[in-house]
Design a protein that fits this description.
The chain contains four helices and twelve strands; from the N terminus they run ααβββββαβαββββββ. With about 170 residues, it is mainly beta. It has a seven-stranded antiparallel β-sheet with strand order 3-2-6-9-10-5-4. It has a three-stranded antiparallel β-sheet with strand order 1-11-12, with no helix packed on it. The termini are far apart.
Length: about 170
């Protein structure tokens, strides 16, 4: 291990990684008749052909092994109005869906009502990357409402974008 890498403690890494703002997505499915999900701030587009998206998940996650077996996963892009949902989905597993409005697709993907966009996906590939895995998802269906502002995660806090400016 190089001297530079050895000197980078996790708290410093988290602080600097937090300088990059990201959206917040819910990744969820129906497992054994109940909704199971988590919040991901590492969600991103990957490819148009084939249609692929991805997110990263800690290898220590207790929720991911449950979702791994689901035939379809829903990815909901949380809106600025869904800060509480973001907090719940990052919290205790047993209360993640308490008081949240959601719907399930025919194949069991869970989508949150009021999200700015959504994807129905299946797992295409999972790649080990340090203490996380990169999960590549194939998109089967999707939609978005660009009039709904996104929830943004920056510097370990939730923020809203100002959408009052003129669009090109």
């Amino acid at each position: 291990m190089s001297t530079l890498v050895a000197s980078l403690d996790p708290q410093r890494l988290r602080r600097v990684f937090g300088a990059f703002p990201s959206g917040v997505a819910a990744v969820a499915a129906v497992v054994d008749g109940v909704p199971v999900g988590l919040a991901a701030s590492s969600f991103t587009s990957v490819s148009l052909d084939p249609p692929l998206v991805s997110f990263c998940i800690a290898r220590s996650s207790a929720t991911w092994p449950l979702l791994l077996a689901a035939p379809r996963l829903g990815v909901s892009i949380l809106s600025a109005e869904q800060e509480q949902a973001g907090r719940q989905l990052a919290g205790q597993a047993e209360s993640r869906f308490a008081d949240l409005s959601w719907r399930a697709t025919q194949d069991g993907a869970v989508l949150l009502e009021g999200a700015g966009g959504w994807f129905e996906t299946s797992i295409e590939q999972q790649v080990r990357a340090g203490d996380h895995d990169i999960v590549v998802l194939r998109v089967h269906d999707l939609d978005a409402d660009h009039d709904i502002g996104p929830l943004v995660f920056h510097a370990s806090q939730f923020h809203r974008l100002d959408l009052t400016g003129e669009r090109p």
